[in-house]
Specification:
Blueprint (H helix, E strand, L loop, with lengths): L8 E4 L6 E4 L5 E5 L2 H7 L4 E7 L3 E4 L3 E5 L7 E5 L6 E6 L6 E5 L13 E3 L23 H4 L2 H21 L3
Parallel strand pairs: 3-10
Antiparallel strand pairs: 1-2, 2-5, 3-4, 4-9, 6-7, 7-8, 8-9
Amino acid sequence: MATPDPSPLAGGCDCRAIRYTLACAPLFVHCCHCRWCQRESGASFALNAMIEREYLEVTGAVDLVLTPSASGRGQTIARCPSCRVALWSHYAGAGPIMSFVRVGTLDDPDRLPPDVHIFTSTKQPWVVLPPGTPAVLEYYDRDQLWPAASLARRERVRPLIEAYQAGLGQP
């Protein structure tokens, strides 16, 4: 399933101190049902739109907060310094090269439904997954699910991700 190009999409925090725009369609939208996302969001899942940081245009300065993650390498959450709303994350794998934007902070979040449900092995039992959207027990093979255009975009930034990982001593 390919996310339609809904760009540009605008969003921000509750107090409007931070505003952002997705300058193009996200690579892919994850609905993550893992226990970490449940705990960190305080909800039954997290809905994140993955996009290259260069396409996330931000007005205002966010606080970057390092938090623990299941990988043990942590994640950095971008929060509004005033109202403290979490706007996006950078996970250890791609660091600041990729942003995982919280879809609920978009002005029109209905435009980005999930492309995949992940970590459904730990989803809340009362959550009913919609038919027609891929769902996996843990994680998935990106080559099987991502649209070709998203794979090409990721390939373009792969050297930046590899350089980031090498600087951290990661494989």
